[in-house]
Design brief:
alpha+beta; four-stranded antiparallel sheet; NAD
Length: 382
């Protein structure tokens, strides 16, 4: 489907209360441990979150261990070629099974040597033959719901949640011409951040701050917004060329086949609640946030290029300016957000009036509050 037909840009997308009356969320929205606890229970353990790229786990036996808000996770490609996700804990006494990434023939617990096949089935449990009623089948690894979209892996702890396609809604209409499925991940970092998870995503979805916080890097930016269907939001920073590098001609050509709207700038999307995809004319990158506590988060930043670009003989040299930009801007954001978190802890902090350029901030706050119990929302506004 054509993004031009289904999604038309607007100066901003506003929701109630009306512009002029809308204010930022109360400070305790970002500082109260009880509110964070409710967010984990009612949002993070019930919605889809980004967990990496399928090209990172391409061959049978490839695995990658990650941390999530629901605990340690193991992504593994089976001998049958199927990509699966499991809780990365032994069924005996819950030791971590594998760490980092690599390739394995089977999965062996480092504590008592229980071992599992790549499909999660328990293959061996030393010393358990003598245990009455013990059987292998019920003691395989615990699966975690996994679905993919165009090479992006998403996980969900709630088996009853709507499927990923329903969650993404019409996002593929806007981003389809970037051809995510043809991309290859080439770079990534993780940054520990002393701030609430929502601040990272709010910051990522507005350009109000860029001319100040990023004066030495990307500079001031202007954006348009898109009305969307599904659990996602989008703005587009207007620029005739890629903004994925700093002050130089982009080293890579535009992605072949980009539609007219995609050629006008860089999309910054939020797949609620914690995943941003940034889509420039020549590449994509992401910001994925893992909430740790009310004032601690982990920010994962990664980047992809079209496969033909990664086959250039000088690819590493050409890609280096992108990596520099992605890391530098992320660190600038982290610095200001940690200051914001400290400010929100002030006994005198109060909600402030929102600008029209905060349209996505308001939308994000309303999305979160709509999924919390009434008593939690009342606590936010006490």
């Amino acid at each position: 489907m054509s993004a031009q037909v289904t999604l038309m840009p607007q100066p901003y997308v506003w929701s109630e209360p009306p512009l002029g009356d809308a204010r930022s969320a109360p400070p305790r929205f970002y500082t109260d441990p009880e509110i964070f606890k409710a967010e984990v229970e009612h949002i993070h353990l019930k919605t889809w979150f980004f967990a990496g790229r399928v090209d990172e786990i391409a061959k049978p036996g490839d695995y990658r261990a990650i941390e999530s808000v629901g605990g340690p996770v193991l992504l593994v490609r089976g001998e049958d070629g199927i990509l699966r996700a499991f809780a990365n804990v032994c069924r005996h006494r819950a030791s971590i099974l594998l760490e980092g990434c690599g390739n394995a023939k089977n999965i062996i617990c480092p504590y008592h040597a229980w071992n599992y096949r790549l499909d999660g089935a328990l293959a061996g449990a030393p010393g358990m033959r003598e245990v009455p009623k013990f059987e292998k089948p019920p003691n395989g690894l615990i699966p975690i719901r996994l679905e993919t979209w165009e090479g992006a892996i998403f996980l969900n702890y709630d088996d009853g949640a709507p499927d990923l396609a329903s969650h993404l809604g019409n996002l593929p209409d806007l981003l389809g011409s970037h051809r995510f499925g043809d991309m290859v991940k080439t770079w990534g970092i993780e940054i520990e951040v002393a701030c609430n998870w929502k601040l990272l995503l709010e910051n990522a979805m507005e350009t109000y701050h860029t001319g100040i916080v990023h004066a030495a890097t990307v500079g001031a930016q202007r954006s348009v917004s898109f009305p969307t269907a599904g659990e996602w939001l989008s703005i587009q920073v207007q620029s005739s060329r890629s903004i994925a590098v700093l002050g130089e001609e982009p080293p890579f050509p535009p992605i072949e086949g980009l539609d007219e709207q995609a050629r006008k700038g860089t999309y910054f999307t939020l797949v609620e609640p914690t995943t941003q995809f940034a889509c420039a004319q020549d590449c994509i990158w992401w910001l994925a946030v893992r909430p740790v506590s009310v004032d601690r988060s982990v920010l994962s930043v990664g980047g992809c290029f079209p496969r033909p670009c990664t086959e250039y003989p000088d690819f590493d040299v050409r890609a280096a300016p992108y990596y520099k930009r992605w890391e530098a801007v992320a660190l600038e954001d982290v610095g200001i957000l940690e200051k914001q978190q400290r400010g929100l802890s002030s006994a005198l902090a109060r909600p402030g009036p929102l600008s029209w350029r905060d349209d996505m901030v308001l939308a994000m706050n309303r999305w979160v509050m709509a999924r919390l119990p009434p008593e939690t929302v009342d606590r936010i506004h006490e």
